[in-house]
UniProtKB/TrEMBL annotation:
Organism: Rahnella sikkimica
Protein name: Alpha-hydroxy-acid oxidizing enzyme
GO BP terms, alphabetized: aerobic respiration
Domain FMN hydroxy acid dehydrogenase residues, every copy: 1-382
Keyword match tRNA processing: no
Length: 382
């Protein structure tokens, strides 16, 4: 009987075996030399724990309240796009995993499943991530559909209006979304992936954009081309004010790293921010979200809602972020490794690993609640 993965790295290795090269490179890759991608992992070593002893931490409560909703743990599944390339039905698998665990699920504008398909899963915490498109009728259409689907929180991504230079993707394609000959040969060597991913419904598309994309561009290269052309490169603070006027629910701004931008976003009416460098996929050489977290927490005050992503692979990483001032952590690649490796069971295992590690770390720090975490439990190695 195959042993269950013990950590996220083991799920990553399983995902690498399960996926053809082009799909794993899309999941794993970063921009340019991938220095930021590396820094996102290495940054956690800058802080070490100072564990108290002789404290009763036999009972622990991981629950938190975010944007008026109670989560069983300070975790959300991050918005990730085109997950249908990893496995058919991946978005719904991730949504159901979040539902079972009682944590939040953030659906991407460019998810393979539509807002309505995920809403049918009856998630108690269904959030929607928005890329602002040039055609404002499409943008307002997405907002209206998110409201109708019961999404309570909108997460607006502001760090990807100009796409990063992802060289791994370029090596695997002879032109956008058209695989090179070597990549096609590699696909043929992964019949299991073809069976799991392509056989049920063919090439995945962009479920949320389907009503707006011409019929001949629904899948693959056509959908990707439409999305690229529609990205609003003029996105600015006035656009944010317009979105605030269109959305009455909680509003978070994702992709902020500059402390001044964090404060300005809150002043402009955002209910919180997500510190992120897009998982190292945008500007290579940018700071990690963890580097700026303490400064942004100090600037924005104790009451500001600060979420964070980019580079998290261990429960100890999550606890360090919480101790430095984050309210919760978004999990992206760890969940995708799980779903690519073993479908819904793999996603569930990925989340189970992180939750167990967070709980164990809390116990070893003598804490009975995540609210007891703070910088006093860490020593900086900088």
């Amino acid at each position: 009987m195959k042993r269950a993965a013990l950590n996220i790295e083991e799920l990553r290795r399983q995902a690498r075996c399960a996926l053809p090269r082009f799909a794993f490179s899309y999941l794993e890759g970063g921009a340019d030399d991938e220095q930021t991608l590396k820094d996102n992992r290495e940054v956690f070593a800058r802080w070490r724990f100072i564990p108290p002893v002789l404290t009763d931490s036999s009972q622990r409560d991981l629950s938190v309240t975010l944007c008026g909703q109670t989560l069983s743990a300070p975790l959300l599944i991050a918005p990730t796009g085109y997950n249908g390339m990893l496995r058919f039905g991946a978005d719904a698998m991730l949504a159901r995993t979040a539902k079972r665990a009682g944590i939040g699920y953030i659906q991407s504008t460019v998810s393979t499943a539509s807002i309505e398909e995920i809403a049918a899963e009856n998630l108690p915490q269904h959030w929607f991530q928005l890329y602002v498109l040039k055609d404002r009728t499409v943008t307002t259409g997405l907002l209206d559909r998110a409201k109708a689907a019961g999404c309570t929180t909108l997460v607006v991504s502001v760090d990807a209006v100009h796409f990063g230079n992802r060289e791994k993707d370029k090596r695997n394609y002879r032109r956008p979304m058209k695989l090179s000959l070597s990549s096609l040969v590699d696909v043929a060597l992964h019949p299991g992936w073809v069976w799991r991913t392509l056989k049920p419904a063919g090439m995945p598309g962009f479920g949320n954009l389907k009503p707006y994309v011409p019929a001949d561009k629904q899948r693959g290269a056509g959908g990707a081309s439409y999305f690229s052309e529609q990205m609003d490169t003029r996105l600015n603070w006035e656009t944010l004010a317009w979105i605030r006027s269109q959305w009455q629910g909680a509003l978070l701004i994702k992709g902020i790293l500059a402390p001044a931008d964090a404060q300005r976003a809150l002043d402009a009416g955002a209910d919180g921010i997500v510190l992120s460098n897009h998982g190292g996929r945008q500007l290579d050489g940018s700071v990690s979200a963890m580097e700026v977290l303490p400064e942004i927490r100090q600037l924005c005050g104790a009451d500001a809602t600060l979420l964070i992503d980019s580079g998290f692979r261990r429960g100890t990483d999550v606890v360090k972020a919480l101790a430095l001032g984050a309210n919760a952590v978004l999990l992206g690649r760890p969940m995708l490794y799980g779903v690519a490796a073993a479908g819904e069971a793999g996603a569930q295992r990925a989340l189970e690993i992180i939750l167990q590690e967070v709980d164990r770390t809390l116990a070893q720090l003598g804490c009975t609640s995540v609210n007891q975490l703070g910088p006093h439990l860490l020593r900086s190695q900088c």
